[in-house]
Every structure is written in structure tokens, then in C-alpha cells.
Predict the 3D structure of the following.
Amino acid sequence: MNMYAAPRRRLVVIGNGMAGMRTVEELLKRAPERYDITVFGAEPQVNYDRILLSSVLAGEKQLDQITINPREWYDANGITLQAGDAVVSIDRQAQTVTSASGLVVGYDRLLLATGSRPIVPPIPGLNLAGVCAFRDIADVETMIAASARYRRAIVIGGGLLGLEAANGLLKRGMSVAVIHLMDRLMERQLDHEAARLLQTALDERGLNFFTHAETEEIYGEGRVEGVRLADGRDVPGDLVVMAIGIRPNIDLARAAGLDLNRGIAVGDDLRTSDPAIFAVGECVEHRGKTYGLVAPLWEMAKICADHLAGDESTVSDYQGTVLATRLKVTGIDVFSAGEFLADETTDEIVFRDPARNVYKRLVLRDERLVGAVLYGDARDGGWYFQLLREGKPLGELRDLVIFGQGFAGLAAGKPVDPAAAVAALPLAAEICGCNGVCKGKILDTIAAKGLTTLEGVRSHTKASASCGSCTPQVEALLALALGATYAQAAGEKPMCKCTTLGHDQVRREIVEQGLKNIPAVMAGLGWSRPDGCHSCRPALNFYLLIAWPGEYVDDSQSRFVNERMHANIQKDGTYSVIPRMWGGQTSAKELRALADVVEKFNIPSVKVTGGQRIDLLGVTGEQLPAVWRDLNAAGMVSGHAYGKALRTVKTCVGSEWCRFGTQDSTAMGVALERMSWGSWHPHKVKLAVSGCPRNCAEATIKDFGVIAVESGWELSVGGNGGIKVRATDFLAKVETEAEVLEYCGAFLQLYREQARYLERTAPWLERVGIDWVKERVVEDAEGRRALHDRFLYAQRFAQDDPWAERTDETAVPAAFRPLATVG
Amino acid sequence: MDTLLDTTDWLDIGALDAVPRQGARTVVTGSGTIAVFRSLDDAVFALDDRCPHKGGPLSQGIVHGHSVTCPLHNWIIDLDTGAAAEPDEGCVRRIPVRVEAGRILLAVEIRS
């Protein structure tokens, strides 16, 4: 046993951002014992993922979700973190740094990872309240706070950063103007045509664009009131975000006398002009180029770590990075890589599908792919990027390359299957551009660590952990590695064979992309079959009905027969008819009408149901309209006993008759049924109201159960009879009937909005947890009222009796009678 | 006179528009009900209105692509061939049908 450890050297890192900490992580992998590490960060937080600030702004992530390394990580690795204490000077002779608080720390090796600063043009008004950049957590907090108090935002800069800021502010409910100096958006990534499509799409979302617009002045008294443009136009606003661009932060390096151009000059070994000092990230200039995206940072981090680790036999040199860009705006797919503008030495292959808003331009030089711009369908971005980096002549692929990897594979006799596309990639193919993770690394890690989830891959490899746009490929690799077990492990399976998306994802996209009918969903989300299947169509019909009440027109051809015929098909092809009996009450008039109908139509069987109603069995399809007409005439309406809908509200007789009854449970049940009848749900929904804790109405095995007690009503949810009996979970106790109605409407609406189609309340509740439901229905009074309001609003369009609609005509409606009778 | 059929004739059973897209209508004949389907791409198919599994009314199923799903137990029948999708096994009789000038013509057996 070696009793001596080599004395540790001292590494000081200036900059607690993504590039600095990634370099430290890579170094710890290579030589965990080599250095005592001290990290200085100007921001008070631990290390976080700056790329995801736009997701935080857009409300898609919380701040605590973007931390890369928590404080425990620093402690566990023996790293001294000086957060919120910026380094103010470097003494290269003494090899020390001095911080703002006066701390002096010596180093053997110094790593500069000072990042970049927002470019701020010299215009008046920059000091007004409400003017910020889009660079760090403090900026995002400023923007979020402004969005809560003010209405109008102005973003200066129509590049990647500016558009992500604008999108985030729009999502936070502000009206947003984007001021851009150039003639087109994202001019460093997009050609004119893609930029125009992007601008149109963002325009439709509500962004207002001012292109060719030079900002002359930000004006206001104390707080910003607007921006004046050089051409005299005036753009009013309460928040101004400067997102023009970034420039390397080189002040410290300049003061220390290191060689500089636009950035800190480094060689291929990422060393500065002082051999003891390295630099990585956005602050460096390498071979005349500076970088503002994340992929080059990761490459630099690895190479710098090689050199810091000191094993000269394995070190590689930094060659520069080919860049690919994706815009992180949900629902807008934009990809750009390499040389995207053509010149006299290049050829172009262009694909346009204006109806689908798809545009692709590939730029070729000497038969090699050197650039790509994709708009509307960027699924093949990773593949093009791979081809671009390989730089091989395309050969026969040239004829097909524009149609994407799937089609190129199809022409070669392979099936079009996104999983197959990933399977076909070489092991060295980069899957995650943000973190520089290749396919082989992901597959190896899945096998070595026994990973089964996306989260597992993210935490072990960092693949898809940053911008997330490679998530489908990572999931495809998981599926490839694990086979069918992955789908179960992942929790949310694809809706059906027509799509790779799960129910929750489809619902989100319906709302976010504003998809308003089934063909739009299928086209927008890339359904593999033009009109889906019997499994996804009813689900989509329901999701659209819930997302766009009063607007979406129900597609009867996507309804299961029972909901199309408004009767319950039986095993012999006849139907059963169950009229609604409000709260289980009926009358002589209704019973007489039922008896008459049974005799008139020779209905073979009459049965009392478990839900306190009467079922007429054996009615033929052709008889249905006439049966309904007679029942309607007696004032009866459809009981929806056939549908994924509100079924019965079972009651006991309650305090009106029962000597134990504490409240009028029958009247409560009738009120609940009057409020909720006609509503569509992911699955059937049953209610019950019992007048005392003896619970004769069996409220504790209903989707929403109400039990009266002396001092009010106890509400419980998520029960069912059925194959797997489940008793309800207690939700809340309320005092008034109005509260019962509000809680019930809110709960039903939450279920309608959140559960997957064909998921009853019981499994849904077990999936999301009763606490989650309580947070929304019980603890959040405002949220509860909003849910209840949405339920009532949707009910305005749902409470039409389907029987009445179909019995108005004197003749039997077409759907119920044969087209012809022959022979 | 129960005899052999001696000729096939094309019988006009109604307008194409009388059958909803992604839907079906029935034709009642002396020897059972026929389901006439119309797919999203306006192809028309005629099959016996009986699922080979338990006799479910295929005309009431959801039509997707050139297939229909039986409303009773979700067997999927290929409208082009009449065959049940695997792993189920069975076949539904198809009846020749065509569309001319917006009218659906069904090949029916005329008995002598």
C-alpha cells in the first residue's frame, strides 16, 4: 500500500457557469485527486443550466429544476465554492487571484470561464427601471415579476435569444413587440424563406415585429414607457429586454495582460498566452472564432480537462466546432447547421410543402452536405448534422436526401420507422448536440447502469438533459436497448400504433399548437396513418371536445357505436335504452310512458339497473328514434348509460323520509345530476349521495361520492365497483349545497382535463395522487372556481338531449335505417 | 323454385353521398344484411354485416383506412380482403360493388 499521496496542486476556476463546471466534471472523471479546486462565481447561486432559462421564463420549468450541480456536489468533491464573490484581479507573477471580498487564493493552474456579457448598444434610457438583459437568473426574475404587473413588453433583438425571450413573455400573458435591426429574424441561422415562415408563425401567435428597426432611445420617467426607433416610430412598453447578442467577457484577462482579440486567445490546447492559465467557453477566441452555443463548450471542456489532468499521452486538440441550432419555442420546429446560405460554389436542394408549412434547404458543395435549414419539420436535423460532420460525398443518397432519413431508408428497402432511423445510425453519431453525447455512449451507459428511464439516461449521460430536443432519439435508443420493457418503464405509452406520442403529450400539443380538429391533430403531430384507428380517434375526439368547448364540432364517425347511436349495443346487435331518472326518482307519468313503449314496440326485456333507473333491452337500431320520441313526449331524456359520460347519480331518500337522514340527499343528488348531465368524460362517471354515514347509496364506491353528516357534506372521490373494487379517498368536508356543486364540478373538470381517455377516476387518482387533486380542488379556492367555471361553460354546449335532436324529424334518420332493401 | 342463380346484375342501391365518410350504411337482402362502407378516401366496400367472430354488426364499427373495427370485441376487418387482422382468424364475404356517376352499384344475385 502506498502511504504517500502526491501533494495536490491548486486549481482556481473563475466562473461557476456551464463551461467552467463541465470542465471540472470532466477533470474529476480523469484525475479526481490531482487538484484542490476553488471556484469563484459572480452569481450567488450554484451552477445552473443557462440554456433552460428560456424554459423557466416560458413557465415550463421551475428555477430549482435547472440546477446542474447542487451544493452537495461541490462538498462531495472537495470543491471550495465562493458563490457571489467575483474575482477582481489576477496576479500572474504571484499566481494568485483576489476576489471582491478581498480573498486571495493561490493557484498552480487557473481556468478562466468568465463567459459572456449581453451586448448593450450606447442608447439613452438603459438605466430606467424595467430594462434588463436575458442572461442570468436575475434577468429572468425581473422579467417574470414584470409580467405579473405589466402588460406590454419590448424585446430588442430578433435572434435566437430574443425570440425565446419574446415567446416566454408571450406565454406569461404579455403583449410582445420584437425590434430587430436586420431584415429577417435569426439572420445568423436562417435564410430568407425560413425566416419568413418563422415570422409568420410567430406573428400568428401574437408577436408584433418591427424589422429594419434601429432603436434610438428608450424613454420613460423613472420606469421605461417605450422605445423610439430611428425612423421616428414609437413602440410603447413597460419592460424592455435587450437580447441583441453577447460578447466575450474578457475584462479580467485584459487587466492581467493576456493576449486578446474579441475573446481570450487560446491555442488548440485551450491554453492562453500564459501556460499556467487555460480558458474555455464563451470568453475564448479560437482560430478567430468565438462561440455562443453550448455544444462547443462541452467539446472544449473535455479537451481542457485532458490537458489539466496532465496525461499528455491521451490529450487531443480542439479543432473548432461545427454548429447546429434549434429554436426552443414549443410547437415551432426550426433547425439550422453549417453554411446555410448558398454561393457560387454550392448547389442547393430545396423542398417546399406550403400547405404543411414545411421548408427544407440543403446546401451541398462538391457533393457533400455543408449546410441545412429546416423549418416546420426538423426531425431529420440530427441526421443531416451527422452527414454534415462526416463530410463524405453523398453519392446515391443525393437523390433522396431531402426527403429525410426515413424515406431514404425506405427507398433502400428499409421500413420508415423513427426507431429504425436511430437504430441505423453509427455508434459515433452524436445524439445530444447540447452535451456532445454519441449513440454508443448512451447504449453503453444503459447497459452498464441497467437504466430503464429517460431520467436515468439524462442523469448518467446528460443526453437530452439540456434543451431536450433530442428526447425522441434518446427514447428510441432506450426502446432499442430494452425492447418492450421500455414502454412500460416509461409510464406513458404511445396512444396507439398510429403515433409515438403518449396521451398527455398529445393533449398538450392540441392546446399549445391550437389544433382544432382530428385531421389537424393527425397532420400536425405526424400520425402514421391518415385517419388513425379505432383506438385513437375516439380519444382525440374527446380531447378536442374538452380543449375547445363550443368550438369543436363532434365527429360522430370517431365515436364508438354506443355514443353514435346513443344506445348501448348488446351482444346480439340490438340496443338497450335507459332514460334518465333524476336522482333515481320517477313518477306515474314516466312509468306509464315506459310501460306503453314496452308494449308498443314489443320490447322483450325490462330491468331495473344498479344505478336506480329502468333499462329497456332488445330494441333494434331502427326502432330507437321512435322509442325515444315516445319517451321524450313524457319528458324523459337520455340517461347516457352507453357513454363515456356522466351516468347516474344514485341517492337514498334522505332526511325527507328516513329517520336517520341528516340532509336532503335526494334533492342534493338531483341538483348534482342537473348540473352534470350530458358531460363527456374519459370514462364513465357515477355519482352518489347518501343522507347519512350508513351510506345506503354506496357513495364510497363512486367516482364522486357525497355523504351527509349533521354539519354538512363529506366529499370523497375515485371509487368504483367493477373488477377491482376501490373505495373513495376523502377529499373535503363542506357545509353548503353550493359548495358540494362547486367541488363536484371542479373535480369532474380536473378529471376531464387531466386523465387519459379510458382511464377511470380510480386509476387516474392512483397515478396522480389524492394530494395532487386536493391541492387543486380543495386548497386552491381560485383554481377550484376556475375549474368549476370551465365545467359550467362547457356544459352550455353539452346539455342537449341527444334523443330530442334525433327524433325531431318525422322520418327515421338515415343512420338508423338501411340504405336499401332488396330481394 | 329454389334454383341456381343464373345471372349477376348491378343494382343501384343509392347515392354515394348517402353513406358518410368513415362510415357505413346497410342493405337488407333476403339472405342477410350487407354493410356498405365508405372510407376517408371515398373507396366503397360491401361486406356481409356480420363479424366472423360473434356476428357483430360491422356497419356500426369505426372505419379507419381500409379497415373497420367490430363494435363488439374490436376485431379489425380488412375491407379490401374481408380478412380479420392477425392474430384473429376469419373472413367476411365481400360483395362486388362499384360507384358510377355518384351512385353505388351492388352486384346482387338475381334468382330465376
